[in-house]
């Protein structure tokens, strides 16, 4: 049975009991609307020698801009709890906004480095400050030995790694490979917004990523190959925000693959739904 904690004090008291028994604790931060990708993070947490896994469910208002879908973001708490119990999650931390941001709360974190890479931050300039703020609070609340984040939100993962290192947060940050549908579409809570026709076309993103990675490994010129990838996606009915090759650690732009380990990252809108994806080269 998955225990539910609503306050930081409750979560910390329970964590202290587990640590007193010599058990390692893992945290999996989520905004709910759980799917198999989230559950794969739980499995990855177990693989980090963590006897106890805490999954947080909190739709964080500070990472949504005024024009984004905070109010419409899917909230399926009862179904989420059933899924957590089915994979043996020990505890769910589900705070209220007032618990996370009580009256008088006024501290902000301003991330730099990968948070200013010119990818998601170009289109969601307030997003990573909100992410850094809530993740810092969750890591401090759980005081976990490790925390697992999906690689689908790759820039976010880079921001969190940078932040944890810069602020000497002792929690180990682990990235977990993207879980995909049979046709390659990356699992995402926002996929429910796709119409039936859009869902069929959405797999083009992962197909173009794979094809582009192969062309670059074969010696294709980075700028030209990425430009062609953007054209293919646009021809498939998407409005492309970006399709770029970046350094896998720093997210700095790459002119050639010789400049370091590389990652392809894409963001595009299909109808009203904005999809992101990425892959290693």
UniProtKB/TrEMBL annotation:
Full protein name: Pantothenate synthetase
UniProt-annotated location(s): Cytoplasm
Leading EC class: ligase
Subunit details: Homodimer.
Homology family: Belongs to the pantothenate synthetase family.
Main location: cytoplasm
Annotated residues for binding of beta-alanine: 63
Function text: Catalyzes the condensation of pantoate with beta-alanine in an ATP-dependent reaction via a pantoyl-adenylate intermediate.
Keywords: ATP-binding, Cytoplasm, Ligase, Nucleotide-binding, Pantothenate biosynthesis
Binding positions (ATP): 31-38, 150-153, 179, 187-190
One example GO MF annotation: ATP binding
